[in-house]
Amino acid sequence: MTDPILAGSKGGGAKPPRPSVEAPDSLHSTAYARILDLVSEGEIVGLKNGKRSVFLNETPLANADGSLNFSGVSLETRNGSQDQTYIPGFPAVENESQVAVELRSDQPWTRVITNLQLSAVRIRLAVSRLAQTNTSNGDTNGYTVRYAIELSTDGGAFVEVLQSAFSGKSSSKYERSHRVDLPAAKAGWTVRVRRLTANSSSGAIADTTSVESITDVIDAKLRYPGSAIIGLQFDASQFQSIPNRSFELQGRIIRVPSNYDPATRTYSGVWDGTFKSAWTDNPAWIYYDLLLHQRYGLGHLLNAAQVDKWELYRIGQYCDQPVSDGKGGTEPRFTCNLYLSVRADALKVLQDLATTFRGMAYWGAGSVMAVADMPEDPVYTYSNANVIDGKFVYGGSAKKTRYSVALVSWNDPADFYRQKVQYVDDPEGIARYGVQQTEITATGCTSQAQAQRIGKWALLTNRLETESVSFSVGLDGTLVRPGQVIRVADNDRAGRRIGGRLRSATLDALVLDADVKAYPGDTLTLIMPTGKAISRVIKSVGYPLTWDSTGITWDSGATTLDTTGFPAEVQRVVLEKKLEELPPVHSMWAIDSPTLAVQQFRVLSVAEDFSDSAIKYSISAVKHVAAKFAAIDNGARIDQPPVTVIPPSVQNPPKNVRVRNEHFVDQGSAVGVMTIDWERPDNAIAYEVHWRKNDGDWVFAGRTGGNAFEVSGIYAGRYVAKVRAINALDIGSVFATSAETVLNGKTTPPPMVASFNAESIVFGIKLKWSIPAGLSTADLQRTEIWYSQGSDMATATKFGDYAYPQTDLTIMGLAAGVRFFFWARLVDKIGNLGAFHGPVTGQSSSDAGPILEYLSDKISETQLSQHLLQKIESGGGAQVEVETMKRELAAMYSIKTQLTVDGKPYLAGIGVGVENDKGVITSQVLVAANRFAVVDPNTAKAVSPFVIENGATYIDSAFIAKGSITNAKIGEYIQSDDYRPGERGWCMKKSGTLEINGNGIGYKLQVLDRGVYLTDTTTNVMVVELGLLS
């Protein structure tokens, strides 16, 4: 037997599972954005620094070293010339609109198109992720979503334009665009996108699709002549959305003077009035371009002959002058970098642009005129001799317009020209007027230093040039125009003769029309036949003298002794430099001196007055301070010369104010005296003296012409005095204050009033008080009454002072039931204060009876009441009378009806009137009738909610916010508006039933007509029970 042989081998373990496989993405999208921007009216210089001047989301396209911050960007520019070519790659005008709507198989997307100029639309579709996961092995593969685009024309049926599909795999967003050409139409089109593949509800399939945008397309090779454009194309994958574009440009090429170099801001030779084309930021020539440009300016209304280019040339030179930039360098005084992007009122735009050079624009003599506030010489002189009636009328600006702080808005180039605010203050203005703030928008300003100068100009102008003048003249009004500076030689204001007319003249000497005070070195200004003002320094005044044995005689020969240096009133002045031509007789003259200057004003308006047959012009001007310009640009100090020798409008205060203690004996008693003295300042004629003791109120001691003042009967304490001086114009100085000084005197103040009470009267309160018995009233001056609506003395206000011996006060004119709290105290003759008595409560009467009786009396006294109740004079029967009356003290209108029965008249009427009874104005409407009712006509049954019958008033329903009732009868019940039985509120019934509910934290209180009950609501246990036990 053969033994069996067992054979085999070791078995292996289970095979590992196959890992899932994800197919690579097969869908990749690259979207390019193409944008064409219209940046300016042409022709412009263009980008300031090439690609470095193009910013996408505030990041420059290129860096200073030439490296690019974005890849795949192409840039094309056209500067707006008439013959420029179109930009390749931009064959159409396109406007993209965002949609971002999910496309579902059960909800097609549609869009109505009404713009018949469109050539096509471009629809951008997207799938956020496209993939399908095999649920058995976990593999991820592609998926397919089919869709169709359809078009309806003029409301017809939809026609399928194309059918396509997203087919493949994408793990991120994938986009594609389809262009849909639009056929001819009369009304428009409707485009529809349908998803043909049903939306999957399986989590293993990602197939969400969407309509991202639609773009309007107009096919054309557009050159845009006369328009500066910039075209950009870039890879959209670098941006989440269409980026913001910014461009730093050198703007329009405009007309500038032919002798002007805008780059160096220099002028060569004399300008001949011709122009050349160049770029500039000088605001004067930007203003000129705006006036005459045919497309964006006023060139279709104006021509070059209607613009004062010569004045603009002078303004342009002033704008280009270098001034400090506040950072160690210099910059032009004014530049303008402005982007006009919206249509606006022409005059407003011109005025805003003129503010760039501190100017204004106006229409005059058939031309557009521009003037600027800048240094210039006066062009003409007006004095009492050539002004109608010799009168100048002066006015001043309101205090609230004298600003001391300015917030100037300007555009910062270092921060993408965003608006910034520059703070400017005027320390002297703040010291005088406090902080008064104004806000200024600096048009076209891109310099912080220029914004500072604009603010400083505004503040100094408001503080220094606060005065205006107006006057009327004859033909002399045609010699000046707005913006020019004039001299006003007002002899009345100056206090002596400083202007007039010429009596006779030689080339080196003048004889004036009146005696004047003039000195060698003074300046005389003369108006020549051409209308030009010339100035000459005075060499000497008066006539030459000779000496011989007969004494002093007039001599026509040479001068051996003259009056040079001797002040005197003379008519003849000798000039240091001869005149170039002989001035005519009656020419205007004015004399300026270091001690008395002629006023200067800048003309605001010149208007012809047609009120009578005479030729007359009215001129208005504002004060001109030439020294402000150096202060604005360089911070120079401003010194204003005096314009009058009349006592000054500013009075200096007294010096060394002192308080001293003296005593004298009066009827055997020592009386303390306070003596206040001071040193007299110049021009002072009187003084006002105030003093106070300890920390009390200031007491006005009086006005005196001396330099000392005494106050008798003082109390012991710490005293301070203040004194101010007053000059001949009744102008006071600031107060000068003494040092605090301890003085001896009486030690007890006035006592408290003995009694103080208040009594209610109709529409008023009557107060009564009494003086303490035995008090010596020789020192008593008055009683102070204070009042408040509350009982806290801290809130009280003084009602008035009542001189002794008055001890009562009646306050009238209050409403019924008005309550006040009152305090009273005594004050002696030197201002020492007694203690307050109070508060005492006073309330005007709220009793209806006396009030109605008072009103009835007042009504019956009026003319309207008497007229209304007057019977109609007639023969009988029924009469109607309508009457309107107007008198000096009354105006009334009345309607009356009357019926006479058995000889007895019965009257009804209504009257409206206003009367003036000794200065008290009363307006009233009165009704005369036995019955007065208001009837609601809008109800099914006539209802009278309000009736007065035989003196009794009946009201059906009423809502009263506040009421005072003397006596009340309740017909059924009275209750609170929140009453809920057993829970809250209160109710009182006619039968005597009473319920009051009170609820608090942890308790409930109930008061009933049968008892009082308190319940602990936390345990719902009644803890107190009074009355009928439950």
Classify the fold: give the CATH topology of the largest domain. Answer: Jelly Rolls
Ends distance: 118 Å
Overall strand count: 71
Percent helix among the residues?
Answer: under 10%
Question: At CATH's second level, what is the architecture of the largest domain?
Answer: Sandwich
Number of helices: 9
Q: Measured on Cα atoms, how large is the radius of gyration? A: 48 Å
Mean of residue pLDDT values: 85
Q: How many discrete domains?
A: 8
| Overall spatial form | extended
Kindly describe this structure:
By secondary structure, this protein is mainly β. Helix content is 8%, strand content 45%. The chain folds into eight domains: 32-246, Jelly Rolls, CATH 2.60.120; 248-372, no CATH class; 398-464; 497-595, Elongation Factor Tu (Ef-tu), domain 3; 655-743, Immunoglobulin-like (Sandwich), CATH 2.60.40; 755-848, Sandwich (Immunoglobulin-like), CATH 2.60.40; 858-955, no CATH class; 973-1027. The protein is built from nine helices and 71 strands. The strands form 20 sheets. The protein has a six-stranded mixed sheet, with no helix packed on it. Strands 34-35-40-37-36-41 form a six-stranded antiparallel barrel. A six-stranded antiparallel sheet has the order 66-67-68-69-70-71, with no helix packed on it. Helix 1 packs antiparallel against helix 2 (309-320) and helix 5 (448-464) packs antiparallel against helix 7. The chain starts with 31 loop residues before the first strand and ends with a strand.
Search tags:
Jelly Rolls; six-stranded mixed β-sheet; mainly beta; disordered N terminus; six-stranded antiparallel β-barrel; about 1050 residues
